Amino acid sequence: QVQLVESGGGLAQPGGSLRLSCAASGFTFSSSAMSWARQAPGKGLEWVSSIYSDGSDTYYAGSVKGRFTISRDNAKNTLALQMNSLQPEDTALYYCAKRRGTAEDYWGQGTQVTLSS
């Protein structure tokens, strides 16, 4: 079965950095595009970033472009999101997701990122 397990969340200060990871199993990871999405308190689910199967193309929401970097290691079946210059608005539950076409079809359980005031 498809399994996506996020890790790396925690507490950060504005201007700080965190690196999220997603361990994937149960499918051919190297053939699948992947995404990160997040849900902030009081808000709906927001798409953050996507990456093509071989990592050649990446896409970012305007709110994170220039600050976050999505990457993958197909040899290790892992997806990563490097988050720099973190802001209070980045506080959210972050989800890793498998994509098929333009939509996500499987989701992880999420990892919490919290920015201090």
Main sheet? 7 strands, mixed
How far the N terminus sits from the C terminus, by CA atoms, comes to: 40 Å
Helix content: under 10%
Give me the number of helical elements: 0
Radius of gyration in whole Å, from Cα? 13 Å
- Category by helix and strand content: mainly beta
Q: Secondary-structure element sequence?
A: EEEEEEEEEEE
| Average of per-residue pLDDT values | 97
General form: globular
Strand residue percentage: over 45%
Can you tell me the residue ranges where pLDDT is under 50 for at least 5 consecutive residues?
A: none
The total count of strands amounts to 11
Structure in a nutshell:
The chain contains no helices and eleven strands. By secondary structure, the chain is mostly beta strands.
Features:
mainly beta, 4-stranded antiparallel beta sheet
Q: Helices, strands, pairings?
A:
Blueprint: E1 3-7, E2 10-12, E3 18-25, E4 34-39, E5 45-51, E6 58-60, E7 68-73, E8 78-83, E9 92-100, E10 103-107, E11 111-115
Parallel strand pairs: 2-11
Antiparallel strand pairs: 1-3, 3-8, 4-5, 4-9, 5-6, 7-8, 9-10, 9-11
Descriptive overview:
The protein is mostly beta strands. It contains no helices and eleven strands. Strands 2, 4, 5, 6, 9, 10 and 11 form a seven-stranded mixed sheet that branches. The chain has a four-stranded antiparallel sheet with strand order 1-3-8-7, with no helix packed on it. Strand 4 (34-39) and strand 5 form a beta hairpin.
